[in-house]
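Need Protease II's 3D structure for a figure. Predict it.
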Amino acid sequence: MLNAPKANKRPHKITQHGEERIDNYHWMRLSDAQKMAETPDAQTQEVLAYLQAENEYTAQKMAPFKDLQEEIYQEMIGRLPKREESVPYQMGGYTYGQRYEEGQEYPIYYRIKAGQTEEEILLDLNALAADKAFFQLASFKVSPNGQQLAYTFDDSGRRIYKMAFVDLQTKTTSPIVLKGCSGDIAWASDNQHLFFTSRNSETLLSEKVYRYRLGQKQEEAALVYEEDDKSFYTGVYRSRCQEYIIIWNSSTLSSDYQLLEADQPLGQFWNFMPRQANHEYSIGPDGQGGFYILSNQEAPNFKLLHSSKDNTAQQANWSLILPHRPAVFLEDLTVFKDFYVLEERKAGQTHLRLITADKDEYLSFEEEVYMVSMGQNHHFEERNFRYIYGSMTTPNSVYAYHLEDGRKELLKQQEVVGGHTPANYQTERLWVEARDGAKVPVSLVYKKGFKKDGKSPLLLYAYGAYGHTIDPYFSASRLSLLDRGFAFAIAHVRGGQALGRNWFEQGRVFNKKNSFYDFIDVAQSLCLQQYSSAEKLFGMGGSAGGLLMGAVANMAPTAFRGLVAAVPFVDVLNTMSDASIPLTTNEYDQWGNPEEEEAYRYILSYSPYENVQAQYYCAILVTTGYHDSQVQYWEPAKWVAELRDKKLDQNTLLLHTNLEAGHGGASGRFQAYKELALEYAFLFACLAEDEA
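Structure prediction for Protease II:
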């Protein structure tokens, strides 16, 4: 029998609100300086030795399923086209596009000048990533005259970006590289200045906006805006109508904007309206001196208004276009010169609403359960627009909608090599009554022939935080589960916004446990309806969804055969108590601030790490990234160590750490599938163990 790694205990005393608790694995926490040091110190060596021991243990436990894991991985990448190209778009006299060449991990960005056929390579990410363990492009912006390229990239996995410049006329790359960026780029009209945001090296908050002139040293860039409130994120972009450079500021509950005419880069930014507590809004310049505004003031699900430039600070002078509707959530707005498109959500389902001077209509779709959103629309003056459509059975498809005749033109559908027949699969929308009477929507897919007799395996996925909704999306890799008899379900638990803003409010701060209860109640309902049974039911979630898995593991340890917790946020109390940890201060409105005793006690009551008990636990696979800046690697590492010390069962508990990656896992087109193949193989390993 293999012996699992045993982490050393070094009691670390923590006192909060007159209470003392002991963190035996606090020693696993390393600073960025320690992780990045050329010569690791003794603590770093011990931490790495423990993580590597856990990796080796995972490899040994999964060794009997190594062939299956490789088979699943080959299936996944085998469904990817050897050569894949994006839908091209026109901009500034060029056609732009990107493609993957056979066997390559990263895309190549190119353009073709109007009237010509010769391709101009702008960026080959394979060359840029050749000597790096991790590489990710964040932003790619060509200057308005088409002669300069600025791009931001991350080569550490920490989401701290660098910015590089290419002269597209001479094909030369500038020796100047800006560091510590957030990824945003907004060119001014003069083609010489651009605006970018920087990241705080400790908290990783994007808090400063700079104006940069080509050729300058980074220290010569001019600071044009600094956000002092640590609960806000800040970014910068150029408006769709090209008229403004816009700085946005956003916290969980408030937002505001600063604007500058794009043809006056040396000018002063002006505030759209004074910031107000609990007022979230977004703006869409109409190109004619006015602004469309989505606002939640006295309208939790948002309303649509319009203002002239002179009246933006005076809300009383804004004109109402669409009032608040309790059953319809306004998610987004895309403004064109002669029309605009609203993304709405009703009863969990997304819709596109087209409004012109003489038309107000919803786009219709044949499937009952689907997802639809606006695609890349680069031209403000276009008479058609692109949108993305898909479902749990239909591959993602890019369409162009033509206003003149209402025609929907398919531009590209995600190719599934080897073939995929949507009619061979069935999708459903269920509604499950939670313990407090709330109706939780569930999206479900399985291969036809699936028997609802309680004998089939099912993977239940959820996220449930930040108002982020997991829509019923298509996944080619998921076919490796469905074709082997699994059903797959998404529980749209509270904390997301599937049913509007109130659905989010019911799943944050002092209502956070609703997310956990919803997931457990959905799981039990699926078993009662005989889609599966507790012996063959699995749960999965990542990041805040990993917190969900950790809480469920403690609260309902017998409800699942196994859980997969990817980059899980499981050390909630300690992380939220330390403002020096990246992004903590921005999260207080999500989870609460433990400096306040009521929030402290509520978080303490569910934080997975503090609530590990001497009890039975189902099988658990935990994954993390050593360079993760969103959920630090030590959170899952400490949680696994605590579980190993206290749990009373012999069920499998595995920790896999990608020592090169961050929050999003491995970079590259193929590498990410290796981790997913491990997760899928883990599910089958649990089932095989029961059959042995």
